[in-house]
Amino acid sequence: MAPLPPASMPLTQRVMHLAQTLQFAWFVGHLTLLFCTLRYGLSYITLNYYSRWAKFSYRTAFMAAAVTYGIVVYKAYRARVRGGARQGSPLALAGDENVQYLVMALVWLFSRQVPLALLPFTVYSIFHVATYTRTNLLPTLQPSPPSAATGASPGGRPAAKSSPLQDTIGKFVKEYYDASMTLVANLEILLWFRILLSAITFTKGSWILIVVYTVFFRARYSQSTFVQGAIHQATAKVDATVANQNIPPVVRQIWQTVKGVVRQAADATDINRYIGGSQPGMNKAQ
What we know:
It is built from ten helices and no strands. It has helices at about 10-20, 20-45, 50-80, 90-95, 95-110, 120-140, 165-200, 205-225, 225-240, 250-270. The longest helix is centred in the middle third of the chain and has 37 residues, at about 165-200. It is globular and about 75 Å long. Residues about 155 and about 275-280 have low confidence and may be disordered.
């Protein structure tokens, strides 16, 4: 993370200093995604989701998503090169969550419109924009005076006292992060069923899309405790439903067979079996 410009610099120079960083481009990408999703949402609500503005907003949102995740992947690669670390295999690279979301952003960018696909990216962007605003944007626009109570920062500079707005944003992120990640997990599950429905109805390109998204979702299940929790919760609900005495036995047998097949497929496609376990250097989705 690039250091903040000194508070002694004029406002214009501080802003220019901030705007010249890759992290600022990452922030603008997430902000663009939010604006485009909002614009597309208005078109969707008014049933104009195939209008010129709706198409532009949808494609631009995923273009912005691809840029943001591309920046994170590039920065991670550059850090490994500078540190002299050995580059991982292609399979290990595929285990990076940011690479996975970069690939999916590109897939959605060039696929037919699936409005639900925007929502997981949007939730992530809300928290990224909020965090960057709290830690970088606000301190640059209005630096706080050093706080005598907090002493000096690890770099030797006096620690600045956070503003009430920064505290509010920090509280929001801390309070709603887990619930929002659970929401993302459930949205990604719903999205899989949405694509499956398209595949069943033989929508053009849907069979290729379901294969690609299933690979992505399998990787998410392997790496995200939130996805695992959502799957286990959904499975428990179905178990409770089919256990009802009013449910025919054949339905319970079908459900047990489906669970067995899915479990075997999940075990056979566990990426950690092929890349030597969980990779400590992998980044969380950003």
